[in-house]
Amino acid sequence: MKIAIVGCGNMGMAFARAFLKFDLVKKEDFLLVEKSAERKETLHSFQPGVLTGVISPEIGTYDLVILSVKPQDYLTVAASLREVIQPSQIVLSIMAGISMQTIQESLNHQPVVRAMPNTPAMLGMGITAYAASPEVERGQLRKVENLINATGRSVFLEDEGQLDAVTALSGSGPAYFFYLVKTMIEAGRQMGFEESVATLLVKQTMLGSYHLINNADRSLDELIKAVASKGGTTEAALKGFEEGKLADALTQGIHAAQKRATELSQG
Ligand SMILES: NC(=O)C1=CN([C@@H]2O[C@H](COP(=O)(O)OP(=O)(O)OC[C@H]3O[C@@H](n4cnc5c(N)ncnc54)[C@H](OP(=O)(O)O)[C@@H]3O)[C@@H](O)[C@H]2O)C=CC1
Ligand SMILES: O=C(O)[C@@H]1CCC=N1
C-alpha cells in the first residue's frame, strides 16, 4: 500500500512508524508532506520515498492520504489537495474536530475515514476510535483498520458524532494522566524526596494500579475501598480531594475539551 501523510508531526509519524513496524508499508512507499523546514530536516532519516513541503499532483498516485495537520491548518491543505485528489483514494483524517462532511465538501471527495488516536500510538499502545463514510468500500475499510490496529487497539463508531467526546476522553486523555503523575511527583518533592525517588514511587504506583484495574476482578470503588483503611491516610487524602472538588474539576476539564473539539469543527 502507498501512503501519503500530510503533516508529519507527532501523530503523523507515530502512524508511519507503526505501519513500518508491522511491515504494512515499505519506507519507499511513503510520501511525506511537511511544511516545517526544521521538522523536514529530521524526516530525512526516516528515508521516505518522497519528502516534500508542498502538495503536488504526485499525491494522487497514493492509495491512502492521511491528514494529520492541526485543525487550524486544514483549510489551506484542503485548497491544494482538492485539485489533485483522485476518486479511488481513501482519506484518513486524524484531526480533532474537523467533521467528515467538512472534509468531503472541502475536498469534493467522498470516501473518508475519520479517526481519533492518542499518543501511546507511538508505542503501538494507542486507542483509536474511527468512523467511515458510506462511500468507503468494505475492502478499503479493512485495509485502513489493519493500519490503525498497528498503532494499538481500535473501536469502530457507527456515529461519527461521538468522535468529539472520544477526543476529550482518550485523544487528550494521556495529557490528563501525565498531569496527575506530574502533580504527584511534585508533592513527593515537597515532602523532601529527590525527583528520581519521587518519580520511581509514583510511576511504579501507576503501573501496578493499572494492572490491578485489569486483573483484580474488582470494581474501581472496591479497589479504592481496599486501599482506604477506616480512619487512615487514604481517607484523609480522598477527603481533601472531595473538598478541593477534584472530580468536578476533572469532569469540567473533559467537557471543556469536548466543547473545544466542537468549536474546531466550526472553524
Ligand atoms: N497530539 C496528539 O495527542 C493528538 C493529535 N491529534 C490530531 O493530529 C493532528 C496532528 O497533531 P500533532 O501531530 O500533535 O501536530 P504537530 O504539530 O506535531 O504536527 C503537524 C505538522 O503539520 C505541519 N503542517 C502544518 N501545515 C502544513 C501543510 N500545509 N502541509 C504540510 N504540513 C503542514 C506542521 O508544521 P508547523 O509546525 O510548521 O505548523 C507540523 O509539523 C492534529 O489535527 C490533532 O488534532 C489526534 C489525536 C492525538
Ligand atoms: O489537543 C488537541 O487538540 C489534540 C487532539 C487530541 C489530543 N491532542
Automatic annotation (TrEMBL):
Its main location: cytoplasm. It is found in: Cytoplasm. Its EC number is 1.5.1.2. GO terms for biological process: L-proline biosynthetic process. Residues 2-97 form the Pyrroline-5-carboxylate reductase catalytic N-terminal domain. It catalyses: L-proline + NAD(+) = (S)-1-pyrroline-5-carboxylate + NADH + 2 H(+); L-proline + NADP(+) = (S)-1-pyrroline-5-carboxylate + NADPH + 2 H(+). Pfam families: F420_oxidored, P5CR_dimer. Residues 160-264 form the Pyrroline-5-carboxylate reductase dimerisation domain. Pathway: Amino-acid biosynthesis; L-proline biosynthesis; L-proline from L-glutamate 5-semialdehyde: step 1/1. One of its GO terms (cellular component) is cytoplasm. GO terms for molecular function: pyrroline-5-carboxylate reductase activity. It is an enzyme of class 1 (oxidoreductase). Keywords: Amino-acid biosynthesis, Cytoplasm, NADP, Oxidoreductase, Proline biosynthesis. The keyword Coiled coil does not apply. PANTHER family: PYRROLINE-5-CARBOXYLATE REDUCTASE (PTHR11645), PYRROLINE-5-CARBOXYLATE REDUCTASE 3 (PTHR11645:SF0). Catalyzes the reduction of 1-pyrroline-5-carboxylate (PCA) to L-proline. Belongs to the pyrroline-5-carboxylate reductase family. This is Pyrroline-5-carboxylate reductase. It comes from Persicitalea jodogahamensis.
